[in-house]
């Protein structure tokens, strides 16, 4: 069965963006060592327009063949004129308001958790959850794996990893990798 992996950048204090959702400040930590890791281990998480100039557009997907993102994440690409930001994967966007997008992008306007459960039953690589706190909160019970890229930065307040009601969920640490720039990448698997 396929896994849903929340692959996310986060501050030390657990925020994925400032109060408005802005997260560009994380990019200053993407140095040669860390970027090399992303290109080798998670090449499919780099958007198609970025893969082409890097010369890695030919690389096969290693971990994911499907991406689901929220409307806010998708609109960042639309603002740049990109309607199919992850053309190297099957693309889904959870939104109750978007219409008329690229035919390569499936809009999920109904029960997003039910749609993810359907995707998990299919054959293939994993499903990459790329989105904001609200989508992650809706899918929290479907998340099988967390890949948390913690950046050496404290925000104080902002957008949390999950916009969900309080309920404990347990995950076990599977791997931990540190980089010279202070970034730590931890992978957790759901225990129950």
What does this structure look like?
- By secondary structure, the chain is an alpha/beta fold.
- The protein has one domain: Dihydrofolate Reductase, subunit A.
- It has five helices and ten strands.
- The strands form two sheets. The chain has an eight-stranded mixed beta sheet with strand order 5-4-3-6-1-7-10-9. Strands 2-8 form a two-stranded antiparallel ribbon.
- The longest helix has 10 residues, at 32-41.
- The two termini are 15 Å apart.
- The mean pLDDT is 92.
Write the layout of secondary structure elements.
Elements: E1 4-11, E2 15-17, H1 32-41, H2 48-54, E3 64-70, H3 71-79, E4 90-94, E5 105-108, H4 112-121, E6 126-130, H5 133-138, E7 145-151, E8 159-160, E9 171-178, E10 184-190
Parallel strand pairs: 1-6, 1-7, 3-4, 3-6, 4-5
Antiparallel strand pairs: 2-8, 7-10, 9-10
InterPro entries: DHFR-like_dom_sf, RibDG_C, Riboflavin_Biosynth_HTPR
Domain Bacterial bifunctional deaminase-reductase C-terminal: 2-185
Protein name: Deaminase
Task: Summarize the structure in short.
It holds the Pfam family RibD_C. InterPro entries: DHFR-like_dom_sf, RibDG_C, Riboflavin_Biosynth_HTPR. This protein has five helices and ten strands; from the N terminus they run ββααβαββαβαββββ.
List the helices and strands in order. EEHHEHEEHEHEEEE
- What's the CATH class, please? Alpha Beta
Number of domains: 1
- Mean residue pLDDT: 92
Per DSSP, the total helix count is 5
Examine the coordinates and then state which fold CATH places here, giving the name of the CATH topology: Dihydrofolate Reductase, subunit A
Task: Please summarize the sheet with the most strands.
Answer: 8 strands, mixed
Beta-strand segment tally: 10
The CATH superfamily bears the name Dihydrofolate Reductase, subunit A
Q: Which residue ranges are poorly predicted, with pLDDT under 50 across at least 5 consecutive positions? A: none
End-to-end distance, in Å? 15 Å
Strand content: 25-35%
CA gyration radius, whole angstroms: 16 Å
What is the CATH-assigned architecture? 3-Layer(aba) Sandwich
User: How are the strands ordered across the major sheet?
Assistant: 5-4-3-6-1-7-10-9
Helix content estimate: 10-25%
Rough outline: globular
Domain Bacterial bifunctional deaminase-reductase C-terminal: 2-185
InterPro entries: DHFR-like_dom_sf, RibDG_C, Riboflavin_Biosynth_HTPR
Organism: Streptomyces camponoticapitis
Protein name: Deaminase
């Amino acid at each position: 069965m396929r896994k849903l992996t929340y692959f996310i950048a986060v501050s030390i204090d657990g925020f994925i963006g400032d109060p408005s959702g802005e997260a560009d400040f994380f990019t200053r930590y993407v140095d040669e060592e860390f970027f090399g890791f992303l290109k080798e281990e998670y090449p499919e998480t780099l958007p198609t327009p970025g893969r082409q100039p890097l010369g890695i557009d030919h690389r096969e997907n290693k971990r994911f063949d499907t991406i689901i993102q929220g409307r806010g994440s998708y609109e960042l690409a639309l603002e740049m004129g990109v309607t199919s930001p992850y053309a190297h994967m099957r693309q889904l966007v959870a939104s109750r308001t978007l219409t008329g997008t690229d035919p390569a992008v499936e809009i999920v306007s109904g029960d997003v958790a039910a749609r993810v459960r359907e995707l998990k039953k299919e054959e293939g690589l994993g499903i990459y959850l790329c989105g904001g706190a609200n989508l992650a909160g809706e899918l929290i019970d479907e998340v099988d794996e967390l890949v948390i890229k913690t950046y050496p930065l404290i925000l104080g307040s902002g957008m949390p990893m999950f916009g969900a009601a309080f309920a404990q969920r347990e995950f076990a640490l599977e791997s931990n990798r540190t980089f010279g720039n202070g970034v730590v990448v931890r992978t957790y698997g759901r225990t129950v």
